[in-house]
Amino acid sequence: MLDDIIKETHESLNLNKINDNLYLTNKEIEVLEKYDVNYNTTIDMLMYELDEILNDSDGELTDLEEVSNSIAEFNYYHNSNK
User: Fold this and answer.
1) Which of 17, 18, 69, 70 could join 22 via S-S bond, C-beta 3.0 to 4.6 A?
2) Using alpha carbons only, how large is the chain's radius of gyration in Å?
3) Which residues of 61-82 are buried (b: 16+ CB within 10 A; e: fewer)?
4) How far is the C-alpha of 2 from the C-alpha of 79, rounded, in Å?
């Protein structure tokens, strides 16, 4: 049972290359698909779409907000000039 939990956690954290500037975990992809968000686009367009969804939402979209924050952090550390 513990082995199954470890395997499932490991699989959900695997990184998938979406394009040259974007990598997403399996879990992030699941959340984006849950909200029908197109992640096969530029990172800027993805961040814009996530902001639109989160701003237009009446309820708590905690999982989508976490993905949005993760993508913003990834973008900052990997795609900006420091």
Assistant:
1) 18
2) 14
3) beebeebbeebeebbeeeeeee
4) 37
pLDDT at 9: 57
d(CA 10, CA 44): 28
- The predicted model scores a pTM of 0.80
Please give the tally of structural domains in the chain. 1
Torsion of CA 46, 47, 52, 57, to 10 degrees: 100
Domain range for 8: 2-79
**pLDDT for the residue 27:** 93
CA 27/CA 71 separation, integer angstroms: 13
Given this model, what pLDDT does residue 78 score? 81
Distances (CA, A) of 67 to 57, 61, 76, 81: 15, 10, 14, 22
Residue 10 has pLDDT above 80, yes or no: no
